[in-house]
Amino acid sequence: MRGLRPLGLVALLLFAAAAFTPLANWLNAWMAGGARLEPADAIVVLGRGGADTDGVLTNRSLRRVLHGVGLYREALAPRLVLSGSAEEVEARTTLAQGFGVPAAAILSAGPAHTTREEADQLRRLLLPRDTRRILLVADPIDMPRARAAMERVGFTVLPAPTAATGPSQPEARLGLLRDLVIELAGWTYYRLTGAL
Question: Is the pLDDT of residue 155 over 90?
């Protein structure tokens, strides 16, 4: 019984730090590392959350594709490569073309539902075209695992994470911390199974 009080106090302090300090935001930015926005062979926008049946992208998927379009418009690469589910890729392609990216500059990777599947699809699509140096667009939280998966299949990865400032509301910070724990569990699983 004596050990439960200190354990409860530690849990309460961790909860308060996660909800009322920028701890989760700092961890999120730390996971992404620094951006390397340099010229590349292609801008690769990984899937995140898909699209509804009516073609509406999730918030994270929308932010990723808009970041990728911005990098394309800065002339950092001649190709914009879109990945994710079939619906997500279709909605993103329509959006990118609406923002002025020519159809000839957009490549679509085959449908994929995991980071490992995306890496395999992108390898088959891009390496035969001698496209090795990529600007990788993903959320900061997803960058370590995504970067390692892409490097494992032969790409030179330049991280281009989406905005990393993070939420300011306690509930959203707790949600971010939960997502960080899930991502770290996924990264650990990939390491243990030899996928990274």
Answer: yes
